[in-house]
């Protein structure tokens, strides 16, 4: 490994999302969110992609693990104390929109919901943990998806602006870092969670997906404006799902296809949110989806907002890489984070088929920094795995340590290359409900939670072997992995 030192003040920590850990889904006035309507189990995405899925909660037929999740709503003090024990410098969490505006379209916020995050933030600050807030992480109020048709509807810009203003003005004196939309580009493969679009309300019409993105870009720019005017010290980030992509081979046809895949998937949203304008290849990307620029409702005022209020830094998730092949030379496929693809013969995959590629993270950091020249924050990374509790209660998760160690080495490599990296928050620092499968058994945490896929368990928290390892890494600022 390279012997580069992580910069002083590097933000080591962990990341979660409200819908995947809080539970308390109807407490203190919280309204239902789209995540509450997604059934548990590996069929989750298949069910949500079926033509008749209409967001109805059918408890006779399905289980809904997000309703209770790991009950962080009542355990947050204990959980944050454990994060502090690991030495976290930063904690990334999201605000459940439906705790603040239960139906999304109210004009007055729910004070009890706001108070919960006041306490959460105070608890972080008590331990000198810097809060990093994702304003919207896969959980718009259910009403906005069901009755407004999700993000394709421009009214959502108004609702989001109200939500973002409320949150930024309430917490923005104590919180310096905000992200607008989690994995905004994920809609290219699966617009359910980030745009509230299912086949029933237009997910299969690409025009809706692009219009929804535009509306989210405008909403994000408005949030940046609000934050910078409220407190110039606030740093606003976009958040993208980055999966480094390789051409399957040296065939120029695959190389070009890979370049265009990168433009469309990895860069398109960031190009708009960081550079403040639609990229030059937009017309090609639209054309490949049967659309022209004229199909989108984009006003000059909106385009001007995008230009003026771009984000300050880029945050991204990185779990795996992918391969582009359009020449029919490979027939081996793999699963992946919202997208599968062709198998890379040089890589191993996780139990869920995600191809593990630490070098791809060093490439990602270099590619992003070369292109945008703004600070980067890795706000998700980790290994979803089945853990075994030994007879003495310990959890020997060496596989997780190996995964994280190799990715931290890759970050060090990128820092050595001159990339400006702000911090690293591994995903699911405490076990939580999986977004793609609704399983508890797909665990990422340093902290084990006694809860199974059927919702049975004491909810007791315990420290895995990786807990002590990460504690040491933070303490020595990445010099001893
Ligand atoms: C990211 C999401 O795609 O990956 C998280 O932002 C998600 O919400 C994480 O949990 C891991 O994916 P999964 O499906 O294993 O939970």
TrEMBL record:
PROSITE patterns: GLYCOSYL_HYDROL_F1_1, GLYCOSYL_HYDROL_F1_2. One of its GO terms (biological process) is carbohydrate catabolic process. The keyword Membrane does not apply. The active site is at residue 380. It comes from the Bacteria. One of its GO terms (cellular component) is cytosol. One of its GO terms (molecular function) is beta-glucosidase activity. The keyword Glycoprotein does not apply. Signal peptide: none annotated. Keywords: Glycosidase, Hydrolase. Transmembrane segments: none annotated. Belongs to the glycosyl hydrolase 1 family. NCBIfam families: PRK09593.1, PRK09852.1. This is 6-phospho-beta-glucosidase.
């Amino acid at each position: 490994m390279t012997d580069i030192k992580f910069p002083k003040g590097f933000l080591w920590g962990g990341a979660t999302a409200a819908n995947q850990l809080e539970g308390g889904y109807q407490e203190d006035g919280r309204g239902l969110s789209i995540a509450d309507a997604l059934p548990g189990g590996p069929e989750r995405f298949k069910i949500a992609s079926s033509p008749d899925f209409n967001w109805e909660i059918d408890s006779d037929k399905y289980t809904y693990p997000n309703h209770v999740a790991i009950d962080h709503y009542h355990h947050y003090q204990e959980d944050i104390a454990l994060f502090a024990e690991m030495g976290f410098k930063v904690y990334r969490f999201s605000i459940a929109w439906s705790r603040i505006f239960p139906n999304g379209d109210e004009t007055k916020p729910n004070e009890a919901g706001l108070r919960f995050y006041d306490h959460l933030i105070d608890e972080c600050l008590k331990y000198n943990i810097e809060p990093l807030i994702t304003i919207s992480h896969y959980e718009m109020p259910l009403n906005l998806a069901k009755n407004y048709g999700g993000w394709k509807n421009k009214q959502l810009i108004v609702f989001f602006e109200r939500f973002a203003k409320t949150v930024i003005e309430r917490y923005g004196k104590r919180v310096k870092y905000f992200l607008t939309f989690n994995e905004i580009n994920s809609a290219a493969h699966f617009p359910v969670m980030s745009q509230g679009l299912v086949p029933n309300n237009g997910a299969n019409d690409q025009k809706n997906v692009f219009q929804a993105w535009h509306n989210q870009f405008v909403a994000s720019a408005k949030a940046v404006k609000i934050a910078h005017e409220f407190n110039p010290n606030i740093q606003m980030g976009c958040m993208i799902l980055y999966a480094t992509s390789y051409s399957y081979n040296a065939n120029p046809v695959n190389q070009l296809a890979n370049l265009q895949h990168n433009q469309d998937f990895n860069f398109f949203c960031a190009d708009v949110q960081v550079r403040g304008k639609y990229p030059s290849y937009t017309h090609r990307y639209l054309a490949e989806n049967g659309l022209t620029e004229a199909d989108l409702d984009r006003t000059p005022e909106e385009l001007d907002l995008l230009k003026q209020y771009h984000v300050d830094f880029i945050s991204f998730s990185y779990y795996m890489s992918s391969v582009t092949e359009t020449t029919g030379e490979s027939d081996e496929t793999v699963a992946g984070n919202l997208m599968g693809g062709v198998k890379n013969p040089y890589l191993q995959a996780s139990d869920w088929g995600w191809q593990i590629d630490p070098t791809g993270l060093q490439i990602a950091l270099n590619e992003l920094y070369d292109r945008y020249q703004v600070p980067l924050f890795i706000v998700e990374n980790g290994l979803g795995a089945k853990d075994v509790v030994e007879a003495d209660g310990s959890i020997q998760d060496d596989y997780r340590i190996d995964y994280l160690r190799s990715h931290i080495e890759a970050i060090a490599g990128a820092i050595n290359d001159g990339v400006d990296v702000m911090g690293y928050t591994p995903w699911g620092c405490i076990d939580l409900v999986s977004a793609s499968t609704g399983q508890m058994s797909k665990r990422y945490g340093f902290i084990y939670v006694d809860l199974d896929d059927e919702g049975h368990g004491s909810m007791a928290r315990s420290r895995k072997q990786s807990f002590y390892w990460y504690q040491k890494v933070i303490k020595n600022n990445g010099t001893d992995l």
